[in-house]
Amino acid sequence: MSPILAARQTEKLAILGGPKCVPLEEPDLFAWPIVISEDEQAVLEVLRAGKMSGWDITMQFEAEFAKWQGTKFALGHCNGTSALLAAMFGVGVGRGDEIICPSLTYWASALPAFSLGASVVFADIDPDSLCIDPADIEHRISPRTRAIVVVHYCGHPCDMDPIMAIAARHGLKIIEDVSHAHGALYKGRKCGSLGHVGAMSMMAGKSFPIGEGGMLCTDDRTIYERAVAFGHYERTGGAITLPELKPFVGLPMGGYKFRMNQTCAAMGRVQLKHYDARVAEIQRAMNRFWDLLEGVPGLRPHRPAAGTGSTMGGWYNPLGHYVPEELAGLPVEKFLDAVTAEGGRCGRGCNFPLHLHPVLNTADAFRDGTPTRIAFAGRDLRQPAGSLPVSEALAGRAFGIPWFKHDRPASIERYAAAFAKVATQAGKLAV
Ligand SMILES: *Cc1c(COP(=O)(O)O)cnc(C)c1O
Fold this sequence. Notes:
Aspartate Aminotransferase, domain 2; single chain; 12% strand; 12 strands; alpha/beta; binds pyridoxal-5'-phosphate
C-alpha cells in the first residue's frame, strides 16, 4: 500500500466524526463529455448551414468511424436503442423468434425484440466479468433462437471466443451491444467488430458521447443493407444492392426513421479525433486507482487481467466487486455511505435484472390477451426470482467507483484512500 493510503487507514472514519480523505470535490476530474471549441465550431456550422436533417456529414462520420472501428460498414442512428433494433432486424430477427441476452443490462439490449414480434430469454452473467456467461447460453437455445445479444458490461469485454463458437455450432447471429465499451479490446481486437454486428449508444453520458446518437457496425453487407432498408428510407437508393431489398427502395421496411441529427454527427467527428488519447488517459487513471487498492480487503477491480490484451475502453460506469465476507459482513449500502462521508465518489452502479421487471412478466404491450413475452414466443419462458442467481445477487456485491477522466496521481490517491480507509475499518461499522 502507498504511504499516503497507509497513513489514512488509522484515522477516524469521517462518518464517525473523523477527517475526510477528499476534503474538496474536484468536479473537473469527472466532467464528461469533454467539449472544446472544435466541437462547438462543428455544431455551429451545421446550425448555420441549416443542415441538421441532412446526411452528408453523417456519412463522413460513418466512414471515419468504420475505419476506426475496423468494420466495412457503419450506419449512424438517432440513438442506441434504434441501432440495436436495426441490428436485430439486420440479422433477421422476426415474428416468433427468440433472442438470448443477459438480464443484467440496460433494457435496450433486449426490449427492441418486442418491436419485431420476437421474445427474450435471459442468460446469467459471469461473476467476474459481469458479462453474459458463455457456459449459461447453450441450454437456452431453442429452435426459435435467432440471435444472441452480448453486452460488454461497464466496459468489460465479453468472452467472445466461446460465444462465437456457440454461434457457429448453432447457426446463430451475435449482436454486440457496445454502448459501454467503445474502444475496449478483447485479446487485442476491438469490441464491436467481433460479432456479426455491433450496435451502440453514443448518448451524452456514454464514453463515446455525441448527444443523442447511435451507431451500427458490421462487415456483413446483408446486415448493413437490411438496416438501411429498415430505418433510412432516403438513403436506400444508393445503398441497396440486394435483389430481395431492391423492390422496397424509397420506403422504410417496418416503418421507422432512424436518421442521426447532424449536429451530433458533427460533434462525433470531432470526438473521434480525440477519443483514443482521452481513453488512454482514462485507462491510466482507472488502472492507477485500482493498483493503489491492491491488497485492500473486500474490494476487487472489475477489469480484465493484465497481459491478456483485453482492456476496458473508456471505463463507462466503472464498478468494483464487493466481497462482504472480507468486510465483517458490512452491507454494501453502509460501506458506500461511509465512503461518501469521506468525500469519495461512489454509487450502486449496476442495472436491475430485467427478468424480474413486470414488463418481462405481466405487460401485454400489444393487446394479445397474454403477456407480450409469452405471446411472441408461443410458450411461457418467464424466469422467476432465483432463476439467474449471479445477476440477482450482484446489487449486494458491486459498487460504483469514481470515473476519472484525467490522470492526476495525487487526486486519485485521495479518492482511493477513501475506499481503503472504510474497507480497512469495516469492522467498526458492521455492528
Ligand atoms: C445506453 C444504452 C443503450 C441505449 O442507448 P440510447 O442511446 O440511450 O438509446 C443500449 N444498451 C446499453 C447497454 C446502454 O447502456
